[in-house]
Amino acid sequence: MPRFRPAAALATAALFLAACGGDPDAGGSDSGSASGGAQELTTVTVADTAGAPLNFLTYGQREGYFEEAGLDLEISSSAGGATVIPQLIGGDLDVAGSNVVSVLVAAEQGLPLRMVAGGTSTSEEPEQDFSAIMVAGDSPITGIEQLAGQRVAVNTLRNINDIVIGSLLEDAGLAADSVQFVELPFPDMAPAVINGDVEAALLIEPFVTAAEQQGLKIVERPYTSAKPGLQIGTYVMSQQFVQENPEIAEAFLAGVQATADAIREDPEAFRTALPEISDISPELAADVRINLWQGASDRESLELIQELMLRYGLIEDEVDLDEVVVG
After folding, report:
1. What Cα–Cα distance (Å) separates residue 171 from each residue in 130, 145, 227?
2. What does the alpha-carbon distance between residue 151 and residue 19 come to, in Å, rounded to a whole number?
3. The pTM is what?
4. For the segment 199-211, what is each residue's pLDDT rounded down to a tens digit?
5. 318 DSSP 8-state letter
């Protein structure tokens, strides 16, 4: 399978990673062909954010939806955000699961990325939002306006967190940069809140439910507050990879769509599988909020996110979505 390794793009990717924070911790092997029973499958290396996004891919692979599309996924975990983009540009990954903000930041900086499928979206119902801003159970804080000047943990910097928290702060009459972000992995956030290292944290499932079980409380639902059903995640390939392998891009979207449809039609089957495909206990799996996946990219969400990014200075110029979005 072809590899994309121009030196200029690698240098730009390194600068982008330094600006956005985080170190890549997941890689993939070279793509090729693997025998999958009677059908010859194309091996595709993909990394996605630990938690619900990673569980989605693992479920789709286990249930055979990617195999039906002709693909065998080699899946690895990442910290999310910008951390996987240098690996993608460097050719260590064929597909990177990231969030829309990080990808648009990279695209505006000239990195040749293409969104080939939609990733995680949030629920239409606030109570089922898989994200939450959480504080200690005995904290007097009850809303975003009380977090002004405080330290708030996020998984990566210059990320979707910036715009959803910024939007909440502005709605409360505060400046979008009224809080200080502290970069922490999701598993470390609840202990940091409990120990007083940060005042609050923006977590996603299953870490939200696990934090509730440790006594933390939810004060805001940032994703649904921005837009019910907001698309947060996206799957990206390099422009060259898509141009040289359009059938793989189409097959990957087909696998994502089939997995999304299956979870939407039978979310309890996905919930039941969680202890088998992840380190989530059956007790935790019974309570976690199930994410929404739509399959293809949601243009309305992408346009809203780009508008907020321009407002908060994450990008200076609009990205041509017609060029970047291919699936």
Report:
1. 21, 9, 13
2. 20
3. 0.81
4. 999 999 989 999 9
5. -
